[in-house]
Amino acid sequence: MSNVGLAGSVVAVTADTRMNVAFDEWWRERQLEGELALQSFDTYASNLRTHLRPALGNLRVREVTPVVVNRLLAGISLQGKHDVARQARNILTQVMSMCVRYGAVSVNPVRDAAPTRKSRGPKEIRTVELDQIPILRKAVREWENRPAKRGVRNITMLPQIVDAMLGTGIRIGECLALREADLDLDGDAPTLTVQGTVVRVAVKAASEGEKATRQLVRQAKPKSDSSRRTVTLPPFVVDALREALALGLDGGPDHLVFPSTEGTPRSPGRVREQMKEALEGTGVTVRPHDFRRTVASLLDSQLDTKTAAAQLGHSTEATTLRHYVKQTHVAPDVRVVLDMLVSEPDSDSPETNVMGK
User: Fold this and answer.
1) Tell me: the pLDDT tens digits for 207-232?
2) How many of the other CB atoms lie within 10 Å of CB of 160?
3) For the Tyr recombinase domain, which residue ranges apply (predicted)?
4) Domains parsed from the chain with CATH numbers
């Protein structure tokens, strides 16, 4: 990607402007707006670098037609990258809308391109079975308290992290981004407020010969606007959070509840590895996102989908139902009705044919 800073001058985009220049100008505008989250910038940059610039960068703005757009998006989709194709379409829609605004083209060609196919949802929604939860909680505590190697015990806070996710349904990135200021554990209804998430973003190389690196940071906003929410805490989560705070670890400038030993954000990938290691030999296989589905399925069955969606921070109930609520696949008990198919008609009843409606 070309280096276009925040203070870069506005570039006149015309019909003959190369798309690489148009991409740069769009990128500059987005930076000036300051509304995109760090993770979104990182994701957009990856899509531009991997797909949009190689395919369209050398074309002139006027040469980007619906046919060209269709060819690009179809090629990405054929690789099974349906979400990436949808994202590329979103970026390109914004870039070409900017070109319309500059008068480089009269209409946005992306709007006339064929729609990108949505990726299929998971075949089966994974949840943690209720009889597995005691095994899970015991295993992670035993793993945390295992004998130290070389006399040095590495505090991972895995039991507390597991309980926090299990009892709230928050994402692992949201959990690891929790700050002390986000907790209210002393009220009649203890709460935590999701105000951010942990993301890994690209960091520019110090010199031309070095490779760019990726750094784990706390992003001061969660995945979406609806993800910013306050949830009430069951007693076992309050206990877990108090345990974490009582360890007195250095939470860094953000005062993180679950920091690394260096006072930086803890790695979600490392937590996943530790969970896998802790559960080895138990017969239980759990991934952090399974906790969200477990919470959603329980709330949906015991309360309603609206409550489940609000707890998870979804903007619509459809997302909760499609991706998070485990279907029981058990039909309702209709034995009495179906028995009417072979029951003798009641001579005193005017209805002599159950199919006669």
Assistant:
1) 445 555 778 889 888 888 888 999 99
2) 25
3) 123-339
4) 19-112 (1.10.150.130), 130-286 (1.10.443.10)
